[in-house]
Amino acid sequence: MDSTSRMISVLWFFWGGALLVVFVAMTLFLPLFGDDARPAWEWFIPNLFPPLGLVLGVSFLQRGTEKAEGSDEGATAVARKGLISAGWVVAGLSVLYLLLLSLSVLGCLFSPEPVASLRTANLWLGPLLALATATLGTRFAS
């Protein structure tokens, strides 16, 4: 991956991550949206996550391809190392998603409105699922 592609990937990953944290905080801790949190998130999700998922997925694919094509001697070992590193990211996103999903389900036990609690949790589970799916796709396609 060239330096420009790397810069774009870092930009999307960190800026998108910061936007996600801010939006979650605005939803949970500020009365900014009030009863209109769902429409706000319905606007936010399709505006951020399709391109973020695409950038993340393509970055992983390019990284594995470049390492495999880098040099004749030891190229296979380098490619495996790159894919293993990417594999740890895939595993990390998967664990994070499954942990948040589990906490959301268990959280219903303590909520006065369990369905509303699940609907609220779906607001950040959906984007995380999109990222996890993008990385899973690159891991199994490579």
Give the ordered list of helices and strands: HHHH
Assembly type of the chains comes to single chain
Let me know the number of strands.
0
Mean pLDDT: 77
C-alpha Rg, in Å?
18 Å
For the sheet with most strands, the description reads: none
Polypeptide structure, described:
This protein is an all-alpha fold. The protein has one domain. The protein is built from 4 helices and no strands. The chain has helices spanning 3-29, 37-69, 75-107, 114-141. α2 (37-69) runs antiparallel to α3. It is globular. It starts with a helix and ends with a helix.
Quickly list its features:
single chain, 142 residues, mainly alpha, globular
Report a brief summary of the structure.
The chain is built from four helices and no strands. It has one domain.
Task: Summarize the topology.
Elements: H1 3-29, H2 37-69, H3 75-107, H4 114-141
Helix pairs in contact: 1-2, 2-3, 2-4, 3-4
